[in-house]
Amino acid sequence: MRDYELTVLFHPDLEMNLDPAVNKVKKILTSNGGEITKEENDGKKRLSYKIDGQEFAVFYYFDVQLPTEAPLKVSNTLNITDEVLRHLLVRADTSRPTAVASDTEPAASTEKVEDDTDKSTKKGE
After folding, report:
1. This prediction's pTM
2. What does residue 99 show for φ and ψ, rounded to 5 degrees?
3. What DSSP assignment string belongs to the chain?
4. How many CB atoms lie within 10 A of CB 29?
5. What is the pLDDT of residues 77-89, one digit of tens each?
6. So where are the chain's domains?
7. Residue 61, class by beta-carbon neighbours within 10 Å (0-12 exposed, 13-18 middle, 19+ buried)?
């Protein structure tokens, strides 16, 4: 099982009753052997460009674990699901550590750095 991130853009008319559409996506994921580890509703947002004549969409994120053969099946099924305007299923990058601020990192230098270009022009005078 590999970790994946799934972003789904739902039709904006479903904002008030999103549960059936989300349950449908969950069923697609679990019926293909997936396991949902995290989900997040990011709400209705304006799109950069119209998709199927819609200027808005409801953004929903899933962190899932899927078997190796499942991503293609999930993607193909989501392509023909009416409630979904767009989706993006990508493999999660677990090799990169997340940025965490720590006290052991050196602070940014506030020293003024002299500009050598002024010195070189003065020497030639």
Report:
1. 0.72
2. -75, 125
3. -EEEEEEEEE-GGGSTT-HHHHHHHHHHHHHTT-EEEEEEEEEEEEEEEEETTEEEEEEEEEEEEE-TTHHHHHHHHHHT-TTEEEEEEEE---SSPPP---TTSPPPP-PPPPPHHHHHHHHT-
4. 24
5. 999 999 999 999 9
6. 2-91
7. middle
> 81 with 24: CB under 8 angstroms?
yes
What is the bridge-based pairing of β-strands 54-66 and 35-51?
antiparallel
d(CA 64, CA 61): 10
Domain made up of 2-91: CATH architecture: 2-Layer Sandwich (3.30)
Q: Which amino acid is at 6?
A: L
Both tokens of residue 37? Answer: 């580890």
Place of tokens 């720590």: 102
pLDDT digits (tens, 9 = 90+) for 45-58: 999 999 999 999 99
Angstrom distances, CA of residue 106 to CA of 80, 102, 103, 109:
52, 9, 8, 8
C-alpha pair distances (Å), 10 with each of 72, 96, 125: 20, 30, 69
